[in-house]
Design brief:
The complex is a heterodimer of chains A (197) and B (797). Chain A has 197 residues and is an alpha+beta fold. Chain A has five helices and nine strands. Chain A has two domains: 47 residues, no CATH class; 135 residues, Immunoglobulin-like. In chain A, the strands form three sheets. In chain A, strands 4-3-6-8 form a four-stranded antiparallel sheet. In chain A, a hairpin with a 7-residue loop joins strand 3 and strand 4. The longest helix of chain A is centred in the N-terminal third of the chain and has 29 residues. Chain B is mostly beta strands. The chains are: A alpha+beta (197), B mainly beta (797).
Chain lengths: 197, 797
Amino acid sequence: MSKCSSTRGTQLKHWNWFVSKYFMFTYFLAVALLFFTGCKSENSDIDLQNEITPTTKPKFHKLLKGSGVKGPLVNARVEVFAFDSKSIDLRSDKALATTTTNENANFSKLGIGTDEDPLNPPYFLVITSTDQTVDITTGKTPVISTLQTVITQAMLDSNAAIYATPLSTITTKLAVEYALSNSSFMLDNSLSIRDNF
Amino acid sequence: MNSLPVATRQVSSTYGFNLTDDINLLSTPPLVDDSIKTNESLNNVAQFRAANEAFSAMVMEIANSLDEKNGNDVLHVLVKDLSDQQIDGKYTNNNHTEILLNDESFSVFNKTPDTLIIPNTEKSIANVKQIILDELSTTGGSITDNSGNKLVVDNIELNTLEFIPDSDGDGVRDNLGVAQYDKNKSEENPSKFSVGGLVSGLYGQITITLNNDELLTLTEPGQYSFETTLTETSPYEVSFNTSTGSSLQCTLNHSSGIVTSENINNVNIFCHSTYINPTCTDDHGFTEVSRNFNVLSSTPTILGITAETSAAAIRLNETFSVTFLQSFDQKSISNQHVYLVSNQHLRFLSSNISDRSELDSSDNMIIETQLGLSSDNKTLNITPQKSLEPDTCYQLFFDLADNEDKPIKGSLYFYTIRNIRVKREEFDTNGNLDEKFSYIYDTKAKLIETIKWNIAKPNAGYIRKEDKILEVTQNDTTSTLQTDRVEYILMSGPDDPIPTDLDIRSIRLKKEIRLSGGNRVIASIGFDDAGADMIWGTMDDSTQRLIGLSGLTHYTHLLTNYYRGFDSWPSSDIIPVPIEVFEESFEYRQSIVHQYRQSDNQIQLRVDYRKMNGTIDPITGIQGPINNSLGRLSPDNTSEEIDDYRLYIYNSIGQLVLRIDVNPRYGVVDKANFNWKLDGTETYEVNKIDSPMDGLTVSAIDDYRVYQYSARGQLQRYIEYEQDIENGNPVDLNAVEIEAFRNSPGYESNYITNDKIDEEAVYQYNTNSGGLMTRTEYHGPAENKIISDIDTYASKP
């Protein structure tokens, strides 16, 4: 049994990859030589040194904004967690992204989803009070220290602000309870925890 | 039903002070942001914010009464209180009641929300309107519409807290009515009943109306029900709202009547096509024979399959058979009145073809056939006199006579299949070829299965259903066992050595024991693939491996889906608890059933049910959903257990759980009229069930293909296997079966493509997200020979 035809596409891509890498290497080698010899292209004003500056900052697929509101919370820690069906609270151990609410009690540009780790809702947004956190409605430390909500695909699609409130918190907790409970009355046992959530 | 929407409705209808439907607990802003541009949205903000402040006030009053300082602890209590679908300060489950709140704490819920004081302030909830305006100076935003006009906030009025949720959002509390979550009836709230029935034969769509009020558009066969519910003695009348058009004719059965004390579910709709199906292909490109079957005077069957609802396909350059119930007159056969017309020609004809004369205008339209007749004069062996085109729909016309010279006229469709091997790439809903998961979709783009690849054990093949957590009903004789779960994991890995510690993902069945009051897994128990031996150990959380394994003596590649029970838990390390694993859930019952024919008591059918997620009704048989169960038919002539045409369901410890008299393809066998023999010499009757057997999928094996049918008998896909043509050796059916449906690790390519058009590939997109769903490569045959160089099911590295 020959496997040539079945792997032809792969081989072709490997060839393309090789060719691509070969020319990339050549290109960078030339650029490096030019850089070290202080040369510029004779036919253009392009600064090759700037031209090859690599960009390492990850490109996020979604930038979240929002707030934690019993009253609006200033200086609260904001974290986004992935869905983890093996976790007791269905949240991943480590936050995918973290920031802090500003003096206007909101956060923005909280990036999730990259080419390496594509968007995969639902996510959990958790806003936790610290010693510096203030509820601007009361001017005091929040009475409920942790607020959370669920970020669904629809919410991501809408690009609307994400808010964690006491009612979203109890809703999230109840939904997690149901999804994990063996006495839950609405779940379809044929589905995974994620699908049931 | 998913837990998040149910939880949202429950909280909104209780702790949310019965918020209106246009306020969503997860998406409505609790403060003024740049999305607020109308009076309505501004008032929703105020209402939602007030509900949050009032709820927080109640939480903190309860916290104070319990000497709790942290509102989060109270939230945990309130979640538990509501989780039994009633706010009463208690948690009740299985006749066990736990007191959560004392009378003083619970009395907080009876307070009028508007009078509650915002914690850490002296302001009442009635001040929220002003608060959200005042805080704009800090949070930013404005209260003007797009034209610059100032928005107006109404006075806020919260409803009192309700103690019983409305889980399904139908406006009826769960303790009233009879809807999905509404448990009881009430004289003050008269019971209401739904009106619906079964629609069959539908393609395209029809719109029907209930009492000229509610409109309901139906787009596919199956059960339907109007949302409107009616009280007892109410009249109901269902009618077509729009004409079904010339291509589809539908009739209503039991369309009107008076509602009694139960749901009306017999308003059945029967549809059939009135024109020649132009493609023989369903919406998703799967080969399928037309549902349109024009029979004028008889009910022929194709290859033993009743043609009315099933698919049929033939290979090129083959003689194929059509079996009739009647005997033929040999003279009518000799007159050669059986002929084929390809759909290429049929599409230019406007209506039913019932006579050859309508086709004679063009000789090219007709493909003559050479006919042979079986010894019982019932089976026609048909050999086309011209090569058929591959992947083409043909209509086969009969113009014959039976042995009493009565005409047998009619036609049926079939689809020609060339020798194609198929490989599929599965993509996630974003169109990405996932490195860890493969996704299997049905023809309606519904995700039916997720396969997780065993990345950690490259040579161990693949894992299915790793995330599938199945609930177990248990005899909890101790109070310390809170949650018990079973996780099924299938794997392949014939060369794996017996390990002393084991990646848990390569264990087929794993039980987790969780201690009361905490959800940490303290131990796991797994069974090996044969199900005969039990292994156990403790799980190392950091490595996700079982350590300290013992009892592992047998570790093979056998995949029988057979789960053994166990009498007791190991005494060491874990709490001994008797658990009746197999009693309550069909998941744990034997998944292989045998079917035997009556004539000679030989086994006729063996079906492996892979995903028996439904329930069994002893009277009517399998009830859905048992979607997309993979199954197989075994060959005849075995000496295994003997009985007639029945399915036997055994549990995992070999006890007979249920017997079903069933035709796996069409419905329930009527025992009284049951007289079927496989040789076709006798008739048989099968009572078609009113609704399709949801999800019961049976795959049949011919020489080198495996066919998989949908629950409605439509051919969904087939997998073709290499045949040793040169030596004429048949395919080893058992090997094919194992290769195909038992142990196929699937195919995964090494690249991601966004191409849409390819000469040899078909790209399927998810109709919901638009994401690339599958890529199917068709490797066409050369001279109708099966090519063998496609690494279709390479094991994933």
